[in-house]
Write a structure and sequence with these properties.
Order of helices and strands: HHHH
Shape: rod-shaped
Largest sheet: none
Number of helices: 4
Number of strands: 0
Strand content: under 5%
Radius of gyration: 17 Å
Distance between the termini: 63 Å
Length: 90
């Protein structure tokens, strides 16, 4: 019996993980999208709509998404502070 017949929805944990990894490497707010996607995946797993075997991947995606979001927010803040002259860039 395949898992697709047991769970009505397919897992998006790998997609969330891919977005999270891209979010760490690319200066775009992709990490936030991964964070939200991973949270939705975990909620779907908890409600029984998706395979719980992918919960670990979704948790990792959530953590990496949070890290990517923090890195993007820090970089954006520093850029804006430099742009407005609050901090000096040499």
């Amino acid at each position: 019996m395949s898992t697709s017949s047991v769970y009505p929805e397919t897992s998006r944990a790998v997609t969330a993980l891919t977005l999270a990894i891209v979010g760490v490497g690319v200066p775009l707010p992709v990490g936030f999208v991964a964070w939200v996607s991973a949270n939705r995946e975990l909620a779907a797993i908890e409600s029984g709509r998706r395979n719980p075997a992918n919960a670990g991947v979704a948790r990792v995606a959530r953590v990496i998404g949070i890290v990517g979001t923090a890195m993007f927010t820090t970089a954006l803040t520093l850029f804006l502070l430099a742009l407005t002259g609050v901090i000096e860039v040499r």
